[in-house]
Amino acid sequence: MFVLRYKIVQKLMEKAALMSEDAKASHNQILKCLIIQAFIPSLLMIGVSCYILSQLGLITHPFIEYLIFASICTMPMLSPFTYLTFIKPYKAFCMRLFHLQRRGFRRGDSNAYYSTTRSNGI
Fold first, then answer.
1. How many distinct structural domains can be found in the chain?
2. CB of 5 closer than 8 Å to CB of 55
3. This prediction's pTM
4. Structural domain for 51, as ranges
5. What is the pLDDT of residues 23-72, one digit of tens each?
6. Are 45 and 67 contacting, i.e. CB atoms less than 8 angstroms apart?
């Protein structure tokens, strides 16, 4: 995994002089997302090791039985979540969709304060 990441970074560095700042930022976001997604299948090892421990009788607890299925079931959910978290256009869309984006006010813009207080009923 780290070898592939190193090779990808080396290829991107070779082309860095030809890329714009936006392209470099996009490549950086995608690379970060790919690295996180490459670690998602390691959750399977948690489930497998818990299953082996419970089958051998070393650990018997209902939480371990739950952890076996929970670790396996979360993998398909985490894959799209990494896109929504690390890729900026997707993150911005979700922030707008759920109204979680902070409003930025410019200094000296008196209408910005008035419009927010008026919409809040103040």
1. 1
2. no
3. 0.59
4. 20-99
5. 888 888 888 888 888 888 888 888 899 899 999 999 888 898 888 888 88
6. no
* Residue 75 to residue 58: CA distance in whole angstroms: 26
H-state helical runs in 56-99: 62-86, 88-97
Does some domain include residue 107? no
Q: State whether the Cα torsion 36-85-87-44 is positive or negative.
A: positive
Cβ neighbourhood burial of 122 (10 Å; 0-12, 13-18, 19+)? exposed
90 Cβ neighbours under 8 A, 6+ residues apart: 83, 84
In a domain, 3, yes or no: no
11: in domain: no
Residue 58 maps to a domain: yes
Separation CA 46–CA 64 (nearest Å): 10
So what's the pLDDT on residue 44?
A: 85
Burial call 75-105: b when 16+ CB within 10 Å, e when fewer: eeeeeeebbeebbeebbeeeeeeeeeeeeee
- Which candidate, 82, 81, 85, 94, places its Cα nearest to that of 34? 82
